[in-house]
Specification:
By secondary structure, the chain is of the alpha/beta class. It has ten helices and 15 strands. The strands form three sheets. The chain has an eight-stranded mixed beta sheet, with helices on both faces. Helix 2 links the parallel strand 2 and strand 3. Helix 8 runs antiparallel to helix 9 and helix 8 runs parallel beside helix 10. The protein starts with 8 loop residues before the first helix and ends in a 7-residue tail after the last helix.
Length: 338
């Protein structure tokens, strides 16, 4: 399932990536409404949040993530655990141990997009005004949700909001501090990727996308532009959502606030054969869908970087999966890897 990491395959090829702390504390003037801090939101300013945590055959990470969620200082929330048809008994165990959570169990693995969409639907049906999509392999700062909600309260045109993401094994190294898109190549780049957090990204900014492992989305934005495009199945879907939101007039915002620590491997080691397939295919689909005039240059860029990656650090298996990604894109074969 989604490592809800949207650093593109291209980025992983060109940079060997990494996780940071060094975040502003409660009351830091760099954060929105920082005079009072996240817990200082007046009751009339609170917004109901549905927290969507997607899981697949992963009891340990999911349980640790939910344990940290139970320590959140912002209390007006509900945790919705979405299971993508686990087969290891993990969902039965989680349901037995966490009666305070809402569970949505899918009949099959719907990927990151489909799985989270079922969670989004459940959250909105249960009265959520904001939906926090959160990777199950994250550890959450206790004030993370409070800061996100505070930004949503003071910025009604902010449709998608995110905060700092760090590497779990290197707690002061940034994974994400905002996202940019190069429309000529379709490359997505995490601002601050692998940098030690020394406060260099401690300002609110409008960005191209928010990483899907820690993404707050406003109800009205979802109603306006729709949920995640399930054709992607895995990777690029949250980037696509951000592009649609911005084109519809919504702001996509990064705030320099305490966020989450992500259990993702630094560098390109996380790129498996299946990941190579999805990133290759979905990169082309993303550009074709959103930046079609730039598709020729993006295709050349994809071919060049995949060749370099497979020669320098890949394998025949990865090369075959990249080729399959190209083939399936041009055949119009989307969704789960067959």
């Amino acid at each position: 399932m989604r490592d809800p990491l949207t650093v593109s395959f291209i980025t992983a090829i060109l940079f060997d990536v990494g996780h940071v702390r060094g975040v502003p504390s409660t009351g830091d003037p760099l954060c929105p409404g920082a005079i009072e801090g996240p817990s200082g939101i007046r009751r009339t300013e609170t917004m109901r949040v549905g927290i969507v945590v997607l899981t697949y055959n992963n009891y340990a990470d999911t349980r640790e993530c939910i344990d940290t969620l139970q320590g959140l200082t912002y209390e007006d929330h509900e945790i919705i655990v979405v299971d993508n048809a686990s087969t290891d008994g993990s969902i039965e165990r989680l349901r037995g141990e966490l009666p305070q959570c809402v569970f949505v169990c899918n009949d099959k693995n719907l990927g990151y997009a489909g799985g989270n969409n079922r969670g989004i639907e459940a959250a909105l049906e249960r009265g959520a005004e904001l939906v926090w999509i959160l990777n199950n392999d994250t550890i959450v700062d206790k004030d993370a949700l409070g800061w996100l909600v505070k930004e949503a309260v003071v910025s009604p045109k902010a449709g998608i909001i995110g905060s700092k993401v760090y590497y779990c094994k290197d707690k002061n190294r940034l994974f994400f501090a905002g996202g940019t898109i190069n429309r000529w190549t379709g490359e997505t780049r995490h601002v601050g990727y692998m940098e030690i957090d020394r406060g260099q990204y401690d300002s609110r900014s409008s960005v191209d996308y928010i990483n899907g492992c820690n993404m707050l989305v406003r109800k009205e934005c979802l109603e306006d532009v729709g949920a995640l495009d399930e054709a992607y199945f895995l990777y690029f879907e949250e980037t696509d959502l951000a592009v649609r939101a911005k084109r519809a007039g919504w702001e996509v915002v990064f705030i320099p606030a305490p966020g989450v620590w992500h259990k993702i491997e630094e560098g390109a080691g996380w790129v498996s054969e299946a990941t190579s397939y999805y990133l290759t295919r979905n990169h082309l689909y993303f550009v074709w869908k959103n930046y079609r005039p730039y598709f020729p240059t993006a295709l050349l860029y994809s071919l060049a970087t995949n060749i370099v990656f497979c020669i320098t650090r890949g394998s025949r298996g990865r090369a075959r999966m990249c080729w399959k990604g190209y083939r399936d894109f041009f055949r119009g074969s989307m969704g789960a890897l067959a």
